[in-house]
């Protein structure tokens, strides 16, 4: 499957965005002082559910970002090959 350049950049941006959002969320979850994530120093079900969401989002964000970067690189290679291929009119 060939991805268009805009779709490739979107997927790459989504992967980066996912990491930024979920790293921030995980840091805030770890430092939670409201009592939702930790009860007397012990992780709660809220903590485990949200940690699982963060981990799954890291994995999916990474996969989507890798697909995006591969699409961007393939697009650049195709442009370079097109520029190096002689045209029928000799130019």
Summarize this structure as a short list of keywords or feature phrases:
single chain; 91 residues; mainly alpha; two-stranded antiparallel sheet; 2 helices; 2 strands; 4% strand
Poorly predicted regions:
none
Number of strands: 2
Shape: rod-shaped
How large, in whole angstroms, is the Cα Rg? Answer: 21 Å
Largest sheet: 2 strands, antiparallel
Give the SSE layout.
Elements: H1 5-30, E1 38-39, E2 42-43, H2 45-84
Helix pairs in contact: 1-2
Could you please describe the fold and organization of this structure?
With 91 residues, the protein is mostly helical. 73% of the residues lie in helices and 4% in strands. The protein has a two-stranded antiparallel sheet with strand order 1-2. Strand 1 and strand 2 form a beta hairpin. Helix 1 runs antiparallel to helix 2. The longest helix has 40 residues, at 45-84. The radius of gyration is 21 Å and the shape is rod-shaped. The two termini are 31 Å apart. 10% of the residues are buried.
A few lines on this structure:
With 91 residues, this protein is mainly alpha-helical. It has helices spanning 5-30, 45-84; strands spanning 38-39, 42-43.
